[in-house]
Amino acid sequence: MKVLRCRDAGADCDFEARAETEEELMKLAAVHGKADHGFADGVPTEVATKLQSLIRDE
Question: Structural domain of residue 48, as residue ranges?
């Protein structure tokens, strides 16, 4: 299982996503980013790159 936490990216946010694949995890992060962080046009490339580097195996 893979996990991604907003807090690890420096956000004051308790969001945690878990998924079997990195692709699934990034989709969950995109939905969260749009709903809770104002990324109306999708997660910017530089943010997505940072998030991918923060994905950990659980």
Answer: 2-57
pTM for the model: 0.87
Q: What is the 3-state secondary structure (H, E, C) of 11-52?
A: CCCCCEEEECCHHHHHHHHHHHHHHHCCCCCCCCHHHHHHHH
How many structural domains compose the chain?
1
The listed range with the strongest mean pLDDT (1-5, 8-12, 29-33, 40-44) is 1-5
- Angle of CA points 53, 34, 58, to nearest 5°: 35
Of 39, 3, 41, 45, the C-alpha closest to 21 is: 3
Place of tokens 């943010």: 47
Using alpha carbons, list the distances in angstroms from residue 46 to 1, 10, 52, 58: 24, 14, 10, 24
